[in-house]
Design a protein that fits this description.
By secondary structure, this protein is mostly helical. The chain is 70% helix and 5% strand.
C-alpha cells in the first residue's frame, strides 16, 4: 500500500466507482417514484443483479499485481472536504460481498412477501450505497458520515421490519451503542484533521494520503487510536462492546438487519483502511491489551452461546466469539494475518448470512426460534438443513471452506507474535464454537421434536432454494479456489505488512511516524 502511487482511473475510461455507488441510489429513487406498481420486486431484483455485475466488472478489471489504489476519482467538495475514491483488493472483495448479499436480501424479500415492500427496497438499496461508499472512500470524514447513514438505515429496518412487534428496547439499545460509536469515531476523525492543520500550518485535511504523511507523537496517536478503534469495535462487535447485538439478532427482522450488520464487516475494513496505516505506533503499543480482551471474548461469548434457547441469540454470540479470533489476527501485525482476517471476515459474512437466511425460512413456517420447540426439521427441509450445516462448518473453518486457509494464516502469525498460549486458546475457542454450532444443528434439525410441531409445513420455494444454493456455492467456491482471492488482496496488504514487520513481539513502541 504505497500512498504516493495513485493510478487515476486505471483500466477504465468511465467512472466505474461512481456508477457502482450511484446505481443503488438511482434504484431507490425509481422504486420510490413507482411505488405500488406491478413488477416492483422484479425490477428490484434486476437492479440488484446489475449492481452485482458491475462489482464483478470491477473485480475483473482490477490489477491484482499492483499494490497502488486503482480506479481513483477525486474532486473538491467544500472547504477541507473532498470526494476521493479508489479501491485496493480488499475494497473490491468487500464490494463483491456487499452486492451479492444485497441481491440475496432482495430475493428474500420476494419470497417472504415483505410488507411495505417498496419502502423496504428503498432502504435496502440505500444501505448498499452507504456500504460501497465506505469501501471506496479514501477520505476518513466521508467514511464516517457514510457509517452514520448506514446505521440510521439499519435502525429504520429494525423499526418497521422487525420480527417482533414490541422491539422498542432493542432498537433504543442499538441506537445508543451506535450513537456512542459514531461520536467516538467522529471525535478521532476531527483530531486527525486538526493535527494535520497544526503540523502543516495549512487547511484541515481528512484525506488518507495527506494524513499518512503527517507525523504524530505517540501520546496523541494513543488518544486517536482509542477513539477510532473503539468506535469501530462497537460495530464489529468486539467484546465487551457487544451488548447491543444479541437483542438486535433476536428481535430484528431475520436475515435482513443481521446480514447488513455482520454480513459485511465494515468495522474490520475501517481498522485496516484507516486505524493501522495512520496510527502504527499506538497499534503496537496497545495491541497486547486488545488481544487480551479478544481472548476473553472468545470464551465468554462461546459459553453464553451454549446457554441460549433462542437460535438467533445463539448465532449472535457465535459472531461475537469469532470476532475475537478476527481481532487476534488483526493485532498479530503480520501480512499473513491481515490476509487471513480479510478472508475470515468474508467467510463469516457469507456463512452467518446463510444461517440467518435458513433461520428466516424456518421461522416463516414454525413461528418460533426456540430450539426446544423445534426438532426433526431435516426430514421436512433437507436443503435448508444442509445449508445451515455447511454454513456452520464454514464458520468453524473446516477444509473446503474459505475459513480453512484463513485461520491457518491467522494462527501462524499469532504464534510468532504472541507465542503458544494465545494461539492455543484461539484454537480451543474454535473447538468450542464447533460444539455449540453442531449442537444447535442437532437440536433444530435432527433431535426428536417434543412440542408437537406441525408436520404439514410447506416445502421450500424455488427462490428459497436458490438463495440457499447460491450462498453455499459461493462458500465452496471461495474455499476450494481460494488462490484468486488471496492474490487479489496480497499486494494490497503488503504495505501494512512492511509497516509492522520490524516490530518485535510483546514490545511497545514510542516515537513518531512519517
Amino acid at each position: 500500500m504505497h500512498y504516493e502511487e495513485i493510478h487515476w482511473s486505471l483500466h477504465a475510461s468511465w467512472p466505474l466507482l461512481s456508477l457502482i455507488q450511484l446505481l443503488p441510489i438511482l434504484l431507490a429513487l425509481l422504486i420510490f417514484l413507482a411505488r405500488g406498481r406491478k413488477g416492483l420486486i422484479l425490477f428490484g431484483v434486476g437492479g440488484a443483479f446489475v449492481e452485482f455485475l458491475l462489482t464483478i466488472a470491477l473485480f475483473i478489471g482490477y490489477d491484482e499485481h499492483n499494490s497502488a489504489f486503482q480506479y481513483a476519482e477525486q474532486f473538491r467538495l467544500v472547504g477541507s472536504f473532498q470526494y476521493h475514491a479508489a479501491v485496493d483488493g480488499v475494497a473490491v472483495l468487500f464490494a463483491l460481498l456487499t452486492s451479492f448479499l444485497t441481491l440475496m436480501v432482495v430475493v428474500y424479500g420476494l419470497t417472504r412477501g415483505v410488507r411495505l415492500i417498496w419502502q423496504f427496497l428503498v432502504i435496502v438499496f440505500l444501505q448498499e450505497a452507504a456500504l460501497v461508499f465506505q469501501y471506496f472512500s479514501l477520505d476518513i470524514v466521508l467514511f464516517a458520515w457514510g457509517s452514520v447513514i448506514q446505521m440510521a438505515l439499519v435502525a429504520i429496518l429494525l423499526r418497521y421490519w422487525s420480527t417482533n412487534v414490541d422491539n422498542t428496547g432493542p432498537r433504543i439499545r442499538f441506537m445508543q451503542f451506535m450513537g456512542i460509536s459514531m461520536v467516538l469515531f467522529l471525535l478521532g476523525t476531527g483530531l486527525l484533521g486538526w493535527h494535520h492543520s497544526r503540523v502543516t500550518g495549512g487547511a484541515w485535511s481528512f484525506d488518507l494520503m495527506d494524513l499518512a504523511k503527517t507525523p504524530m507523537d505517540i501520546h496523541l496517536q494513543s488518544v486517536v487510536f482509542f477513539l477510532l478503534f473503539y468506535g469501530l469495535a462497537i460495530r464489529i462487535p468486539l467484546f465487551p462492546l457487544h451488548g447491543w447485538f444479541p437483542d438486535v439478532a433476536q428481535h430484528g427482522m431475520v436475515a435482513v438487519a443481521p446480514v447488513f450488520l455482520v454480513g459485511v464487516k465494515t468495522g474490520i475494513f475501517g481498522v485496516l483502511r484507516f486505524v493501522f496505516p495512520l496510527l502504527p505506533d499506538a497499534v503496537v503499543l496497545w495491541h497486547n491489551y486488545v488481544v487480551g480482551f479478544a481472548v476473553l471474548g472468545i470464551f465468554y461469548a462461546a459459553i453464553l452461546a451454549l446457554m441460549q434457547t433462542n437460535i438467533r441469540r445463539l448465532l449472535a454470540y457465535s459472531v461475537i466469539s469469532h470476532t475475537g479470533l478476527l481481532t487476534i489476527g488483526l493485532f498479530s501485525l503480520d501480512q499473513r494475518a491481515f490476509m487471513g482476517v480479510v478472508l475470515l471476515a468474508v467467510n463469516l459474512g457469507l456463512a452467518t448470512a446463510s444461517m440467518f437466511f435458513s433461520v428466516g425460512f424456518i421461522y416463516h413456517r414454525t413461528n418460533t426460534m426456540f430450539m426446544d420447540r423445534l426438532g426433526g426439521l431435516f426430514d421436512h427441509f433437507p436443503i435448508i438443513g444442509s445449508t445451515f450445516l455447511i454454513a456452520g462448518l464454514s464458520i468453524i473453518c473446516m477444509p473446503g471452506t474459505p475459513g480453512f486457509d484463513a485461520v491457518h494464516l491467522v494462527l501462524e502469525a499469532a504464534i510468532d507474535r504472541f507465542g503458544a498460549l494465545v494461539t492455543i486458546l484461539a484454537a480451543l475457542g474454535n473447538v468450542v464454537a464447533a460444539g455449540f454450532l453442531l449442537w444447535a444443528f442437532h437440536r433444530t434439525f435432527l433431535a426428536k421434536n417434543q412440542k408437537d410441531l406441525k408436520t404439514d409445513m410447506e416445502p421450500p420455494q424455488f427462490l428459497e432454494r436458490a438463495i440457499a444454493v447460491s450462498i453455499v456455492v459461493a462458500l465452496l467456491a471461495l474455499g476450494f479456489y481460494s488462490e484468486p482471492w488471496m492474490l487479489l488482496i496480497d499486494q494490497s496488504l503488503g504495505g501494512l505488512g512492511v509497516l509492522f514487520e520490524h516490530t518485535l513481539p510483546l514490545e511497545g513502541v514510542a516515537g513518531s511516524h512519517g
